[in-house]
Write a structure and sequence with these properties.
By secondary structure, the protein is an alpha/beta fold. The protein is about 50% helix and about 15% strand. It has a five-stranded parallel beta sheet with strand order 2-3-1-4-8, sandwiched between helices. Strands 6-5-7 form a three-stranded antiparallel beta sheet. Strand 5 and strand 6 form a beta hairpin. Bound molecules: zinc ion.
């Protein structure tokens, strides 16, 4: 049974690889952001608590997130699962291993992309002022949207600042998981520098070796 944790920095393409892996292995997938929103929608007691944090712009406390993950895992204990962006901290990873109300992962897939390359991705992002499409511009630095001809606008300064904040947070809190899972013999490191297809080919090959 597969119980997989997917780790990667912001802008590493983790979300895309997660969807592709989900399709490949047909596993229920937990993203904590989505889980929090769903709980709010359902209007449960926990949901009301979550909403009070989200609406005030505060971080949802770890204990609350752990409670939600625990409930989710209990519902999916027979099928295996895929976790997107969780655990985010060493304390959370340790809880999955040792606390019997959780399940331990069988594999941790870590996407590695150098920081300068991630920043390059952010800097080349544009948003169409007309249709809202997000595109990545090439070296020719095109000015108009391929879909509608609208003007492409950059939010690179805001986005870079936001990225650096999230990346620093990731380096401090999540990077230690690499060593933790390596020590447990569960770490699969993937070079995330290529195209989405190239990266997924390596992941796919792990599950379905081609030769
Ligand atoms: Zn457009």
């Amino acid at each position: 049974m597969h119980r997989i944790v997917l780790i990667g920095p912001p802008a590493s393409g983790k979300g895309t690889q997660c969807r592709r892996l989900q399709n490949l292995l047909n596993l229920p997938t937990l993203g904590t952001g989505k889980l929090l929103r769903k709980e709010v929608e359902l209007g449960t007691q926990l949901g009301l608590e979550v909403e009070s944090y989200l609406s005030s712009g505060a971080y949802v406390p770890d204990a609350l997130i752990m409670e939600l993950v625990k409930n989710w895992m209990a519902r999916h204990s027979e099928s295996g699962w895929l976790l997107d962006g969780f655990p985010r901290t060493l304390a959370q990873a340790e809880a999955l291993e040792v606390d019997v109300s959780f399940q331990a992962p069988t594999l941790a897939i870590a996407l590695e992309v150098p920081q300068h390359e991630l920043e390059q991705r952010i800097a080349s992002r544009r948003e169409c002022a007309d249709c809202g499409a997000t595109v990545s511009v090439g070296p020719s630095n095109e000015k108009n949207c391929k879909e509608c001809g609208g003007l492409l606008e950059s939010r690179a300064d805001d986005d870079l600042e936001n990225f650096r904040r999230r990346f620093a947070n990731y380096s401090e809190l999540t990077q230690p998981l690499f060593d933790y899972y390596a020590a447990n013999g569960k770490l699969l490191t993937i070079n995330g520098s290529g195209t989405s297809d190239e990266v997924f080919a390596v992941i796919n090959n792990h599950f379905h070796p081609s030769g």
